[in-house]
Amino acid sequence: MSMTEKKHQSTFCCQHSGGNDQACVSLVPIFNHLENDQLNEIMQTVKSVRFNKGEFIYTADDEVDSLYIVSEGKIKIFHLSESGKELLIRVLQPGDFTGELALFQDSIHKGFAQTVIDTQVCVIKRSILQELLLKYPSISLKILAEFASRLEKSEKQTIRYATEKVETRIALYLAECMHITPASNEIKLPVSYKDLASYLGTTPESISRTLTRFEEQGFIKKEKQHVLEILDLDGLLLV
Fold this sequence. Notes:
Oligomer: single chain
Distance between the termini: 55 Å
Radius of gyration: 19 Å
CATH superfamily of the largest domain: Jelly Rolls
Domain Cyclic nucleotide-binding: 30-150
CATH architecture of the largest domain: Sandwich
InterPro entries: cNMP-bd_dom, cNMP-bd_dom_sf, Env_Response_Regulators, HTH_CRP, RmlC-like_jellyroll, WH-like_DNA-bd_sf, WH_DNA-bd_sf
Keywords: Activator, DNA-binding, Transcription, Transcription regulation
GO molecular function: DNA binding; DNA-binding transcription factor activity
Number of helices: 9
Domain HTH crp-type: 164-234
Strand content: 15-25%
């Protein structure tokens, strides 16, 4: 057995839970447009797996052979620099997915997927995914839309690194979090200051100092650890 096979065997020895497959399938945008009977068909192919906080869903150089959909919890996707520093790419929350390259080609993962908290993941194997694509072409269009969205976010982030000061990057990030939950002024940072600093191209100390300064200026209020209330969004966007 190869090291990759051993790694996957170990990963899938997590606690299984079979009761949330329906919720998982109905959450993810690439499936939730389908009819109920089509969703039921997909549910029969899903394997639900529980991961503890800090476990890896996959690591760099593992074979890309499955689509992973977050049912509950949170997963961070990151790469490692040559010096070993984590470079955060994105954070997956319920309804988000990773491993989509399994749909199109034989490949290996270039990065890592690690749980931020205890997490439940729905897994669909590559062969089954390819059958679903042939049967329901609309799934492909939904996946392409997600690719386009990720590319847009990546380009926007690259421009910010090159042109915006750290304070502006943090302010814009908080504003984007507000758009995710527009009904509330309260936002919860999805990751630690360390991971957020990696994503925004700064340091945890800069994140902490900047948030303290924003609070002193009346833009935000720190409610508790990683929870903020946005008091003056317009002022924040003028930073």
